[in-house]
Design brief:
Blueprint lengths: L3 E6 L7 H14 L3 E5 L13 E3 L2 H7 L16 H6 L3 H6 L2 E8 L1 H16 L5 E6 L17 H22 L2 E6 L6 H9 L4 E3 L11 H17 L5 E6 H5 L3 H5 L20 H16 L5 E6 L10 H19 L5 E5 L5 E5 H4 L16 H9 L9 H4 L11 H5 L2
Parallel strand pairs: 1-2, 1-4, 4-5, 5-10, 6-8, 6-9, 7-8
Antiparallel strand pairs: 2-3, 10-11
Helix pairs in contact: 1-2, 1-12, 6-7
């Protein structure tokens, strides 16, 4: 039987999943290998009846430029008990599998490492190479290289936000946009900068102070008041969803907004629209201040995950897949593939990236870097001391809405 490789996709989808799988298939078939595609992510490896298929050139050629993921995905994370009782070693033995390629984020990479160690302990060593994916752009790649899917998601997110901004200008109101990004604000900042949004709020902004509902609301009102002073009665505000996840649960409860809570009393934020939550809280504050501002919520999330990849990701994902093949030929394992600006592939070893808990710490926005600082200094609108006198027509104490004072910058 020919040697073979097996590919699985884990976590949530991102533009370019099929480009990676299709390109891997073409490269390894060209090298004389069978290529198996596993459905169901890691759940397929811990099942007696895994769903998998052999991928050929025609399948690869059909899917490589499409959005979504042909290989069904899941967020299944095996326990130690799963490894001991449910791992399907026969799948690897019967198919003469020499390499496991995982496509996903940090959890997918960490689990791949566990599987490689487990197989080695069973005297069936198999190499593993991880292809880093996340539209959040929060995996720590060198030279600020993006994770695949990020640029396509930003492109579509900016298209939605650009349309929303035009609606705000046309209607004379404000659109509140929540963008995906639980651990980092890369996507929100990218959308905000691309669309000249007058206020973008990301977790990294709160590097000198604690995130609170009050500060989020005051930053938003600061932009609205500043634009009112300038005679601009419209705009958008982009907020990274991670801002809300980083809040103290008691702070959220104090807003009086209706939501469900888990058994530990924590708000179940994953079940609700952050944009709607934001809008509801803001409307209550407008009423207190007597401000007549019309706002509408927009959520940017699931609508950017399965779109067709843009040319950047079509090229980048092809290079990542070919890079994985080149690393395999060199005998590499236990690594994540990184492609530099010249298209050269390099291994990033998972054990060097993981912390003591076996997790890969997220890469956050460099809030002191030029991208963030130039945007906040030159594109955003907010109250400064020079605006205090004019701002008194809208809020009783303008100093409370001073951008730099709110953030302690």
């Amino acid at each position: 039987m020919k040697d073979s490789i097996i590919i699985l996709t884990g976590g949530g989808p991102a533009p370019g999943m099929n480009t990676v799988v299709g390109s891997l298939t073409k490269a390894f078939i060209g090298g004389g290998y069978r290529v198996l595609g596993l459905h169901g992510g890691y759940s397929g490896l811990f099942s007696k009846t895994p769903k998998y298929e052999e991928l050929d050139f025609f399948k690869a050629d059909t899917i490589f430029n499409r959005g979504g993921s042909y290989l069904m995905m899941s967020r299944f994370k095996p326990t130690d008990k799963d490894f001991e009782e449910n791992f399907n070693l026969e799948l690897f033995q019967q198919n003469n599998i020499k390499l496991l390629v995982t496509v996903g984020g940090d959890d997918t990479a960490s689990t791949a490492n566990r599987i490689a160690k487990f197989l080695e302990s069973k005297k069936y060593p198999i190499r593993n190479i991880h292809v880093p994916k996340t539209i959040d752009n929060d995996l720590p790649l060198p030279a600020n290289a993006p994770t695949f899917g990020f640029n396509s998601a930003k492109d579509e997110g900016a298209h939605i936000a650009r349309t929303a901004y035009e609606d705000a200008r046309t209607s004379g109101n404000w659109l509140l946009i929540s963008a995906m990004g639980r651990s980092a604000g890369h996507l929100a900042l990218g959308i905000g900068e691309a669309t000249h949004c007058p206020m973008t709020i990301i977790p990294e902004m709160f590097n000198n102070t604690k995130i609170t509902i009050d500060k989020i609301i005051k930053l938003t009102i600061s932009a609205i008041v500043k634009r009112s002073i300038l005679g601009i009665p419209y705009g958008t505000v982009v907020v990274a969803e991670g801002v809300f996840h980083d809040l103290d649960p008691e702070d959220l409860k104090g807003t009086g907004v209706n939501m469900t809570y888990d058994e530990h009393g924590h708000p179940e934020l994953g079940k609700i629209s952050k944009a709607v939550l934001f809008n509801d809280i803001l409307e209550k504050e407008f009423k207190k201040l007597g401000m007549k501002v019309k706002t509408r919520p927009i959520e940017i999330g699931y609508d950017v995950r399965c779109q067709d990849p843009i040319a950047f990701d079509l090229t980048y994902c092809s290079e990542l897949a070919m890079g994985a093949y080149e690393l395999f030929k060199k005998g590499e394992t236990g690594c994540m593939v990184y492609v530099d600006a010249d298209g050269n592939a390099h291994p990033l070893y998972l054990h060097d990236l993981q912390n003591e808990e076996g997790k890969i710490p997220p890469r956050r926005v460099n809030i002191d870097g030029g991208t963030a600082r130039n945007y906040f200094n030159n594109i955003c609108h907010y109250i400064t001391p020079e605006d205090y006198q004019a701002a008194k027509a809208f809020v009783p104490d303008p100093a409370e809405y001073d951008f730099n004072k709110i953030l302690n910058w």
